[in-house]
Structure formats: C-alpha cells, structure tokens
Design a protein that fits this description.
By secondary structure, this protein is of the alpha/beta class. It has helices at 16-28, 40-49, 68-77, 92-104, 119-127, 146-155, 192-201, 205-225, 246-257, 277-289, 306-311, 321-324, 331-346, 359-368, 387-400; strands spanning 8-12, 33-37, 56-60, 83-88, 108-114, 158-167, 173-184, 188-190, 231-236, 264-268, 293-299, 316-319, 350-353, 372-373, 382-383. The chain is globular, with a radius of gyration of 24 Å. The model is unreliable at 131-138 (pLDDT under 50).
C-alpha cells in the first residue's frame, strides 16, 4: 500500500482507553499522522481547522452527547470525501443501520469494526481506502438516456429523500416533502433535474411517480406508527395528470397503506402547457373530492400562476424560492412575496415559503406571518433514517434561537 506516513487519520471515541488502543494499533501498522478526540464537537472543531479533510475517520458510534449518527450527519454536511470506519460495541444491527445511513448520505464507508478491534481487521479496512476524493468521478454533467432511467426505476435505484415543512412561528414539523434521487451504482447520488426530464420525454414518469408515491406512503405510515403524525407530499408531473386512472391509483395505494388522504399532499408544477386541460382538471378535482390535498408548487414561475388558482381547488400554495431567498433585502422580491402570501390568505390556502436558505431569510419569514417554511436553513432533503437525528438538532436550534 502507498505511503502510509502521508495518510491523515482522525479517531473519535469517548473512551480514552479505546483511543489509546486505536492510536497504538495505527502506529503499529505504520500510520503516524493520527489525531485522537474524545467528543464529537472536539473532533469537528479539529476537522474544520484542517486545510484538507482527513483521509480516514475512525468513528465510535456510541458516545454520550453528540453520538456517531449525529457525527455522520455533520460529516455529510461537510461533504467529507475520505473513508469512514465505524467502530462499535453495539450489536450488528446498529452498526449496519449506521453504515446504511452513512452510505445514504453518500459517504465512503470502508466498513465497521467490533470492539475490541484487532490490528488485522483494521488493516484490511484501511487498505480499502481510496487515496483521495479528487479521484472520484464527478457525477455532474453526465446525461442519461431513457434506457438507463427505465432500468433505474425497475431495479429500484430511485430513493426518496425528505425535506421538512415547519411552522414558522413555532418550528413544529408538520410534514415532509418527498424529493426523489437516483442512487447510481457508479455516479453516486443523481439529482432529479438529470433524469426527470428524460423520464418525461419518454413516457416513464408514470412508473417513476408510482415508485416514489408508494415509498412515501409506506414511510409516512411508519412515521405515524412511531407516533409522528406527519403529512407527506409527493411531486406530481403534468404527465401523471394526463392519465384518468391516476386519481384511482393514488386513492388505492393510500388506502392499501392505511394513510388518511388528508395527510397526503400532491404538489403540482405546471412546467409546460397542459396537454389535455379537461383530463388534468378531472384528475385533480377527483383527488380533491377524495380529500387529498393539492398544492401549487413554484408559485409565481412558469405557468404555476393565477390561471391555475382560478381553475383548480388548491389547498396549499408554495411561494417559489426565487421570491423568498433574499427578500429581506430586496424590495421587489418582498413585494411579490407579500402579494402571494396575501392572495393565498384571501383564498383560504395554506402557504409554504420555499428556499429559506439562511438566518436572514428565516428572520424575514417570522415577520411576514407566513405559516410554513421549507429550505436549507431548516433542513436539506435527507434520507428517512436521518430524520430522528435532525429533529433533535432542530429542536435544540429552535430553543437557542432568539425569539423575535
Ligand atoms: P420542488 O418540488 O420545487 O422541490 C424543491 C427543490 O428545491 C428541491 O430540489 C430541493 O432540494 C431544493 N431546495 C430546498 N430547499 C432549498 C433552499 O433553501 N435553497 C435552494 N437553492 N434549493 C432548495 P431537488 O430535490 O433537486 O428537486 C428539484 C425538482 O425536481 C423539484 O422541485 C420537483 O419539481 C422535481 N422533483 C423532485 N422529486 C420529484 C418526483 O418524485 N417526481 C416529480 N415529477 N418531480 C420531482
Ligand atoms: Mg415540490
Ligand atoms: Mg418548489
């Protein structure tokens, strides 16, 4: 294996004894650039102070204070490019769950070690290390053809991420929006703008929406059963609304899972002119009659506009992020934002501000009386497994925040 003395390793374990043991083992294997930390915050501070991220992190998942799962989330937020080794005295299931979560976050997991670790076990995992993040192929500009997208749907490579919708005044989480990603075996996590248009152009959206919706319903039911009554929103393409049976499909799936339709939100963006206005109106009206909630997404852009509000029975209006972000410092954005808000209020609709990106956006929102907010400041879209950790974090942040 190549130059071990050039490998930076960060070790995090709350037991001083274990830290010493791991440090000695690493030295024995020829790794000399090792920094050891007894708590998550201390390790993060050390991480943030580095010019380059460590090549490998050894992480104990069971720690008081910030635990390993939470630490994994912080690593994901920093787009940690190196290898991750989980070390734990916990049972296999906990280790596997944490590994899965780290992979879902697109971290590079080398594997896990049970306590007490052995030099041989450690050595095998370290040898799997990829030398640097720069060698990972960028997933950026690649395009995918219809066949690839079709295969991804069939193989179940699409995964649902979820982004919270929270009550601005209290921070309470009332629902989650489902945002689909493609966990590509080689390219990593691929975002919807890379494959939804392909799916739309080749008649694959029906299958895609069905897969996403089924997953979202099962997830929402699981949350409900865990005592968390959250609504779940799914994005619907105009193509879905061109098929008359769509309303029946949604109703049947929802009933099969046992979710109340009132907890299921369908977000509609009119990205292009409706192919068949009558069919779309038929489908949406029937969904509404069945008590599903309809949301007009990206309001103020494209065709998501006044004509839709006139013609369709929407329950929710989502102010597009281009009007929210930075509205606190831009009079024109603020005017559009406030007009949209007032319109929705007069029509008796729920309002969600999209694109709350930072503390200034959040503070602005709190002054406007807008009921719900969504955006990176609150949470990035995350795998379902990350929700408990985020919730804990969010509650802590809300308690700390100045109330204005
Ligand atoms: P959308 O429904 O308007 O979703 C919001 C998008 O904005 C998401 O991008 C989300 O990650 C991103 N976002 C959230 N908060 C912020 C923020 O504070 N700042 C910024 N700059 N962006 C934020 P994503 O996940 O890439 O999805 C893009 C679009 O793809 C979605 O827009 C939606 O129209 C479509 N889409 C996603 N999942 C599905 C799906 O399952 N089916 C269909 N038909 N369309 C989907
Ligand atoms: Mg949406
Ligand atoms: Mg939107």
């Amino acid at each position: 294996m190549n130059n071990k003395s050039a490998i930076d390793i960060l070790v995090l374990d709350d037991e001083p004894f274990m830290l010493k043991l791991l440090g000695r083992m690493l030295a024995g294997l020829g790794y000399t650039r090792v920094s050891c930390h007894e708590s998550g915050p201390a390790a993060l501070a050390a991480y943030d102070a580095l010019d380059d991220a460590p090549n490998v992190i050894l992480l104990d998942i069971n720690m008081p204070g910030m635990d390993g799962v939470e630490f994994v989330r912080h690593l994901a937020q920093r787009h940690y490019p190196g290898g991750l080794i989980l070390v734990s005295g916990e049972d296999d299931r906990m280790l596997q769950a944490t590994e899965k979560l780290a992979r879902a976050y697109h971290l590079f997991v080398l594997g896990s070690l049970h306590k007490p670790p052995t030099p041989a076990g450690l050595s095998v995992l370290l040898d799997k290390r990829i030398p640097s993040a720069a060698e990972k192929p960028p997933a950026t500009n690649k395009t995918y053809d219809a066949e690839a997208v079709r295969a991804a749907i069939v193989r179940g490579e699409l995964v649902n991420y979820y982004q919270p919708k929270v009550v601005v005044a209290t921070g309470d989480v009332i629902g989650m929006e489902t945002l689909v990603r493609w966990q590509h075996p080689e390219d990593g996590l691929v975002f919807p703008d890379r494959f939804i248009p392909v799916a739309e152009a080749h008649g694959l959206v029906g299958d895609l929406t069905r897969a996403v919706l089924k997953g979202a319903l099962v997830q929402a039911k699981a949350w409900q059963e865990a005592g968390q009554a959250l609504s779940v929103a799914v994005n619907v393409s105009m193509d879905d609304l061109a098929a008359l049976e769509f309303a029946d499909f949604v109703a049947a799936e929802t009933a099969a899972v046992g979710m109340p339709p009132q907890s299921v939100v369908l977000e509609v963006t009119e990205s292009r002119l409706m192919q068949s206005l009558a069919t779309s109106l038929d489908v949406l009206a029937r969904l509404r009659l069945k008590r599903f909630r309809l949301s007009i997404d990206d309001f103020g852009t494209g065709h998501s506009s006044l004509a839709q509000l006139r013609d369709l029975p929407f329950d929710e209006l989502k102010i597009d992020r281009s009007f929210t972000r930075g509205a606190w410092q831009d009079e024109r954005l603020r005017a559009i934002f406030e007009a949209s808000l007032s319109l929705a209020n007069q029509l008796g609709m729920e309002v969600v501000a999209e694109g709350v990106e930072d503390a200034d956006d959040w503070a602005f929102l709190r002054q406007t009386g807008c009921h719900l907010g969504q955006g990176y400041f609150i949470a990035r879209p995350m795998p379902a497994a990350a929700l408990p950790g985020w919730l804990e974090d969010w509650r802590r942040r809300m308690n700390r925040a100045p109330q204005n």
